Amino acid sequence: MTVLMHLSDLHFGAHDPLVCAAVQRLAQRLGVAMVVVSGDLTQRATAQQFEQAARFVQGLHARSTLVLAGNHDLPLFAWWMRWGRSYERFSEQFGMDQEPVRQMGAFYVVGVNTTRPWRHERGSLSSAQIEHVALLLARAPPGAWRVVASHHPLVARDAGDRDHRPHRADEAVERWRIAGAQMLLSGHVHQPRLLQPLPGLWASSAGTAVSHRLRHGSPNSLVVLSTEASGAAPDGRARMAARWDYDSAVGEFVCVDRVAAG
Q: Which residue ranges does the record assign to the Calcineurin-like phosphoesterase domain (predicted)?
């Protein structure tokens, strides 16, 4: 079995150390091969908060990591950094590549940056980004689970959720589905959910993994994708998506939902 852990909206600076420790224990227990963090690692994009986030991610001991910036990872109060230096503190801890691509086992993950220095909250996608991701998906190894990760959600659960999506979201979803995308990972809304917007395409949004910034009555949560041997699957390998929530009564994350996702 190959395991990918998807985290989002860590918000270091507004984090809970007990929940952080529980995530690290879960990662070790599951033997996580890849970690994807889809943005908002910090609360206010300070150097100290990025250092805390980097130590936490390193403590998951995954063989591969893919980390994206979120809107909270661009300086808000240090407004002068938004002109040419917006990703400086992020890059010091997580590298210069703001749209990384990773392959680990059965997973092929393409990261796309939906943040913009001139936007405080809402994201955007350019036509060039959409086409670039499509070309990368088309080059994925045969049989790989083709995943696209972004901070802002590309699929809305209801009409009230549409404002959270980046500009050109509909265009991106359709183009990437044609190119072979099978799973979309995102965060931003702090509300876990798993949808199948189109045949063959799933969209999973993780809640806030370790912060106090809980919304909509949702607890701290994360998503685990796994591939495992299955005689019932056409290619002999089942693809599963599971939601894990933090249970404060026991101080651990527990699996609350698990579905076949491809």
A: 4-192
Dig out the tokens for 71 from the structure: 């809107």
Residue 254 contacts residue 247 (beta carbons within 8 Å): yes
Could you identify the residue written with the tokens 């609360």?
A: 43
Within 13 Å of residue 221, how many CA atoms lie on the same side as its CB?
A: 27
Give the model confidence (pLDDT) of 86-99 as tens digits.
899 999 999 999 99
DSSP H or E segment with residue 179: helix 169-179
Type of residue numbered 57: V
pLDDT of 37 > 90? The answer is yes
Q: What is the pLDDT of residue 234?
A: 63
Strands (E), the chain: 2-7, 34-38, 64-68, 101-104, 107-111, 145-149, 183-186, 193-198, 201-205, 221-229, 237-247, 252-260
What pLDDT was estimated at residue 216?
83
Sequence length of the chain is 262
Question: Would you state the pLDDT for residue 77?
Answer: 66
CA distances from 261 to 51, 78, 114, 167, 253 (A): 34, 42, 24, 26, 21
